[in-house]
Amino acid sequence: xxxxxxxxxxRPDAHSRRLSAGIVERLKGHQPDxxxxxxxxxxxxxxxxxAGYATMLSAPGALAGxxxxxxxxxxxxxxxELESADVVVIGVPMNNFTVSSVxxxxxxxxxxxxxxxxxxxxxxKFGLLEDKQVYIGVASGGVFAGEGARQPDFLTPYVNAAFAxxxxxxxxxxxxxxxxxxxxxxxxxxxxxLLENIDLSSLGPGR
Length: 207
Known about the structure:
Blueprint lengths: L1 E6 L7 H16 L4 E6 L10 H8 L6 H7 L1 H12 L2 E7 L7 H10 L6 E3 L5 E3 L5 E7 L15 H12 L4 E6 L7 H13 L11
Parallel strand pairs: 1-2, 1-3, 3-6, 6-7
Antiparallel strand pairs: 4-5
């Protein structure tokens, strides 16, 4: 099993980082020989869409040869990382009700017409990537899910739509909520409960 492990928070001790690390630890416990590709968008953010890439998306024939290759180089690298993984683990903080900007920048490179997204004769988009299990650890200072929700959630529907557009529909969210109000003991207990309840049966027999 090969894991693509993505973190999005710039904080080294972020709750989302701890959560994603816990998910990877559980996966490694299930498959000790699992290998990992690390993409730390928090520590090493990728650039937002550049002019060449935007030109390629809007007018694919506008650039040719080396220019075209240079324009999609980062996108291709990130897509290959995603394609090569059997499982994807993402740690992301909820920023202003949605994904962090560095994660949005990554998504903008992954969603690419003709490479990860196809279009039917009737104009409907469909994913070109093979589906795989995606674990998404979300840390939020407030409460956005469940009966006690007190703030909007634009993160979950956006990620669902974006990932489905490339063919990834097996998403499991692990929401660590109210981090601004819980003490360390409560946070540790909440995180442990989320990790304990992960169903690994879809990954096949362990060890």
